[in-house]
Amino acid sequence: MGLLHRVATVGGYTAISRLLGFAREVLTAAFLGAGPVADAFVVALRLPNLFRSLFAEGAFSAAFVPLFAARAARDGRAEARIFAEDALSFLLAGLLVLVVAAELAMPWVVRTIAPGFADEPQRFALAVELTRITFPYLAFISLVALYGGVLNALDRFAAQASAPILLNLSLIVALLLFADRFPTPGHALAWGVAVAGVLQFLWLAMAAARAGMPLGLPRPRLTPGTRRLLRLMGPGVIGAGITQINLLVSTMLASLLPAGAIAHLYYADRLNQLPLGIVGIAVATTILPQLARELRSANPETAHQTHGHGMALALAITLPAAMALAALAYPIVRTLYERGAFGPGDTAATAAALVAYAAGLPAFVLGRVAVVGFFAREDTVTPVRIAALSFLVNAGLTLVLMGPLGHVGVALATTAAGWLSLAVMLAVLGRRGHFHPDRGLLLRLPRILAAAAIMAGLLWAMDRALEPWLAAAAPLGRFVGLGVLVLAGVLAYGAAVMGLGAVRGTELRALLRRRRA
Q1: In this predicted structure, what is the pLDDT of residue 7?
Q2: Domain shared by 470 and 363, yes or no
Q3: Sign of torsion, CA 199 201 206 207?
Q4: Which of 92, 209, 464, 499 is 20 to 30 A from 242, alpha carbon to alpha carbon?
Q5: Which of 475, 467, 366 is nearest to 423 (CA)?
Q6: Sign of CA dihedral 50, 53, 55, 60
């Protein structure tokens, strides 16, 4: 299975999940709007999202997959299974302690991640209650990460990639069927998160059993393999989650702004997460086990090519996506969110934040792929140092910008920190001789940028021309109008890259022939 095929598998399931996520966010905006209940739920969801990024898409997989793959290649699948079972039992014991401690200390936890809520007792109490409901999800998603790491190391990517679909379906069902049976719709969503954790765990456990790798649960013990895993995973928790850690800092500081700021940032971030998930996470997830195997087979040049190709693929897709998001921020937000409790003012505030996040989208995506170059070499310390620098820059810029620019300043600070983090990672990898950029992409990058700019200009002009009709249209008409804009953007970008010579027709025909073969 080639890299493009694997990326398409993970990206395809991620795309389905993100589309269902859009449906979920549309319902969330309609039921919760952007008021105090929405702010409280976003805070309650921030910790599960952080752990999902750090574990399922980050530190645990980054540490576990190379170790598991190396054990399977060196000692066979039976020994690799023993290692996975030891890791499972030790991880579960630690998670139980963490969950119990956090449930007891939840008021202090919420005070830490949302200090601005302390001055509003009702919003603070609601955030504590909802976070207590969602927190057990952390334990289940961490176990999902372990099972997903086993499957990814065996080149089986579909099960873990499709697991987030269960989360979105659970939240949609919670809103549609149970929103009026709880004190607030936020309570229904919080319970939906908790149930989704159980469903995802069962789904991955069954997938591992079907793959011939069912895991038992021995007595927890600190074996040499488990110690090695913890040593790699500890610093990797920070290094893998640079973007999510910066978003957590943004949430903490945004809690000091007027009610609704956290919700506006959350809705904008969810839109920005679509290409980040489909491209960045998909490429990073699929090349990590391949890089680990190539490095251990004493074939570093092939590993360089794999990493460079992954970066090139991510960049070629992300640049036009970022420009399209920025050009269509207002119609996208209005079409998807503006209904029920979510009004025109919320649309304008969320669209402004989306433009700021879109400016950093290429950095967020490429950062996901670049950090794999460290993890595949079992280096989880260097990304931590880079993350610390990014953290300081993000916090400092947020404090400077949130005064004059409000929540948009918070988003701009996150974007600037993302670009700095990417630049430092690439500089370090290049200096060590661990990364060689795709020369063909570098030569074509100006043409790709020009094609993306042409597409963005066309979208902006079409949006201005259609604005009177879209403003008066019914919801279905707005969806049709947005679909027309998206289709026009795809066609314009395709024509521009062909016309400017960024992609040649012979290359496309060769790719189609390989796909048919």
Answers
A1: 54
A2: no
A3: positive
A4: 92
A5: 366
A6: negative
* Residue 415 to residues 270, 326, 365, Cα–Cα distance (Å): 15, 13, 12
From CA 185, how far away is CA 301, in angstroms rounded?
54
- Residue 486's domain comprises 440-517
| Per-residue pLDDT tens over the stretch 96-115 | 898 899 899 999 988 887 88
Q: What is the pLDDT of residues 283-323, one digit of tens each?
A: 655 555 666 666 666 566 666 666 666 777 677 778 888 89
CB 423 within 8 Å of CB 360: no
Domain match, 333 and 377 both: yes
Q: Which two tokens stand for residue 413?
A: 């600070």
Are the beta carbons of 136 and 128 closer than 8 angstroms?
no
Number of domains in the chain: 2
Q: What is the pTM of this model?
A: 0.67
Q: DSSP alpha helices (H): ranges in 179-255?
A: 185-210, 224-239, 242-254
Higher-confidence position of 276 and 513: 276
* pLDDT greater than 80 at residue 223: yes
Q: What gap in Å lies between CA 296 and CA 300, rounded to an integer?
A: 9
Residues 508, 471, single domain; the answer is yes
**Residue 149 to residue 143: CA distance in whole angstroms:** 10
